[in-house]
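Problem 12. The chain below contains 79 residues. Write out its predicted structure in token notation.
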Amino acid sequence: PYVAFDAIAAMAERDGVQPSTAMTKYQKAVSFGILKVMSKMGISTVQSYKGAQIFEAVGLGEEVVDTCFTGSTSRLKGV
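Solution.
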């Protein structure tokens, strides 16, 4: 998120807005967007998402999947 924060700070200064206000609005918008996507996926709480493994790891090597995403499927191998 550092690149996004830097871009937001630059735009805020250019437009005469307080960078802290712009950051707060950005964080609020991103949180809303993530919650909206999660609700469309049928995830009502973060706790129900953790460990649900409702995704497939695409383009990741078998060792990475086994280490970081235990139990997830990965039909397309990669790095």
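Discussion. The mean pLDDT is 83. Students who got a different answer should revisit the alignment rule from Section 12.3.
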